[in-house]
Amino acid sequence: MPVIYTADWYSAVVEAINAHVAGLRGVPEGAWTCRIEIAGDGVSPYVAAGEERHFLVRIDGGRCIWYREVLGEEEEGTVLDYRFSGPAAVFDEIAAGVIDPVDAALHGTVKVRGDMRFLMRQAELVKTLLEAYATGVETKWPLGAPPYAVTGGSGDATTAGAPTTAAAATRGPADA
Amino acid sequence: MRDTYDVVIVGAGHNGLTLGAYLARSGLEVLVCERRHEEGGGLCTEELTLPGFLHNVHANYHTFVDMAPPVTDLELREHGVEYVRPEVQMASVFTDGTALVIHSDIDKTCASIARFSEDDAETFRRLHAEAYGYIDLLLGTLMYQPPMSVKELTKALSAFGVEERSEFLSVKLRVETINRFLDQHFTHPKVKAHLAFHGAVCGYTNDVKGLAIGFPLLAGKIDNWNLCVGGSHRLAHALWRDLAQHGGVMIADADVEHIVVQDGRAVGVRLTDGTEITARQAVASTVSVEQTFLEFLDPASVGEELAHKVKTKVRHKDWTLFSVHLAMDRLPEYAAAEFDPDVNRAWVVNLGYGSPEELNADWATIRAGGLPDPHPNAAVNSLYDPTDAPAGCATGLLRQFAPFALADGGEGAWDEIGPYYGRKCIEEWRRFAPNLTDDAFLASAVFTPHDIVRKLPNMIRGDWMMGEISLDNMLDQRPLPELGQYRTPIDRLYMAGSTQHPHGFITFGPAYNALAIMAEDLGIEPWWRKV
Which of A44, B12, B25, B350 has its CA 20 to 30 A from that of B204? Predict the structure, then answer.
């Protein structure tokens, strides 16, 4: 069981994503680079308050071909198609399957930038990718597992995939 | 004046200037032709009454300015644009002396609503929170992207399970009126009246089927109304400065009479004084569909089918605005201030609509060409921008929903009836703000629906949204399916004004989205697209 945000964990996420997408039909051609920006919020024990962890993800033909952590300014010149940003506790809880990623986007706790038309037109693919991220990896949480009480996630990490409430998804660092 | 540019844009309203500024920053040689003596179109600020009193003749309310990409991309604040978001945004005053007040602070707004209905206050808080959550996503998806179809959107919302995740978003909204939405979620008629009034001010008529789809977004912007300090024209001037600083040219009194087409491609324009200007790469029109296709182009270029559709299928709003601009020596003091003192600080006040049914009745009167008993809304910009009037004085703006053509005498009858109706509007204001006695008004000027088209002929029938706001005139169907993606059947002729998605109002959206399409066609690197 890989520890959250380690190289092994990224590999497991990539495998999970590709396994999920393999069953999809009509996956669009083309490649997209996404940047995920996770901001330490004083709630998550995995990203220190004030610190940011950034990851680049490359999707090609619906498959994740790599997923790696980058330093803040590193690869700044990379042409991005999408940027997802939000507080660490929310990303942790998404990875633990406690918060639904679509809820998080819909309620603005995770901000999404990029061509929304593609995300909307490829809703099935996007949903599958998000589900894989949220529920596809059994994760080890050595510093404590989400949900974090202050963010209000429902259930505990062993209930990965359980439905959550909109209220849980809307809570972020401002409530901490 | 040079006679050749890369791109020629017809109309120097905020969309024409925005498109021109982006293209100029992209290194193209740009000319913007404006029929009037100055840039701005609806961003028009004039001393209509007395020297020193600045009146926004047309556009007064700017919403979501902090979310509009051009504000930052074109460095409009550096060019002198300053916005104020009034603490007390809006209010309704009612005939029984009560008032409902919308603040920029949601807690205060909910406290005001709770005085009428605690349940409605709680519902509004949930609706507002939900809308605020997805407003960023919605604007990015719907406002600042070329439009998708309703079918595509519905399919995506279904795939993401949005209906199950949202208390207020439902596929059924596509067939419902705002009235129905309000009845489903709110209880108190005055709360519903204010929300319906706010929708109407945004162009979303509360009794039109399908417009419930836009209501959650409207609720999200109810406290995001901004005032352009020094008058709305400041925004036009800032856009012009940016255009000019990047080598673009705007010429006033340049009345386009013809768009030149050669071998099916737009290659320039001819002005009424005979001047011919060549466009090497493209022509973009930001004026009306009717002007563009029925006046500026040869019928042979347009084709019979499109010309017929423009004549018969392009629809306009069935009501418009009658305005009274006022120079005043005092601020209004509402009788309802005894109930809620904050009403005296409200930027915009709905005078008297106490239920959606009262609005419905007025729409019926207006659609029949009648003049409703006035229920104007009153804006006092000086409350938040003291620079718009001499010290100790204030400007006032009364806006009344009205027909364009009167049943008795057509639009021409406004010239005679306008001053009388203006006095009736003032009397109605005084009914709620008794301190506005005759001597409070130093001067007044009415601006009738007929005046709108005389000043801004692109607003056909006084249609300040430049196209009906209805479900089948939205997104990629606006203004016609074949024009819905900013391209036209004529190669290198683009539509980039408020006739297009999203619609009128100061959104910059039509120009920003047309820019994306033109960039694809002209091979421009989209430097502005920041992910």
Answer: B12
pLDDT beyond 60 at A2: yes
Q: How many other CB atoms are found less than 10 A from the CB of residue B305? A: 10
User: What CA–CA distance (Å, rounded) separates A95 from A12?
Assistant: 12
- What is the gyration radius of the CA atoms in chain B, in angstroms? 23
Q: Which residues of A100-120 are buried (b: 16+ CB within 10 A; e: fewer)?
A: bbbbbbbbbbbebbbbbbbbb
Other CB atoms within 10 A of residue B241 CB: 19
Looking up residue A122, the CATH number of its domain turns out to be 3.30.1050.10
**CA B110 to chain CA mean position, Å:** 27
pLDDT digits (tens, 9 = 90+) for B230-241: 999 999 999 999
**CATH number of this structure's domain B4-35+253-315+463-522, picked from the four choices 3.50.50.60, 1.10.10.10, 1.20.120.430, 3.40.50.2000:** 3.50.50.60
Residue at A120 is within a domain: yes
Q: Which two tokens stand for residue A5?
A: 């945000």
pLDDT recorded at residue A75: 61
**CB B133 to CB A82 under 8 A?**
no
Structure tokens at B74: 């074109």
| Number of structural domains found in chain A | 1
Asked whether B146 and B485 are in contact (CB, 8 A), the reply is yes
Q: Tell me the shortest Cα–Cα distance from A120 to chain B, in angstroms.
A: 5
Report chain B's mean pLDDT, rounded to a whole number: 96
Cis? peptide before B372, omega within 30° of 0: no
Range of the domain at A127: 7-91+110-144
Give the domain ranges of chain B: 4-35+253-315+463-522, 112-222
The reported pTM is: 0.93
Note the pLDDT tens digit of each residue in B398-413: 999 999 999 999 999 9
Chain B residues interacting with chain A (CB cutoff of 8 angstroms): 129-130, 132-137, 140-141, 145-146, 148, 152-153, 155-156, 159-162, 165-166, 530-531
CB contact residues (below 8 A), chain A span 113-142, against chain B: 113-117, 119-121, 123-124, 126-127
- The first and second tokens of residue B186, run together, are 């709110």
Task: State yes or no: pLDDT of B123 exceeds 60.
Answer: yes
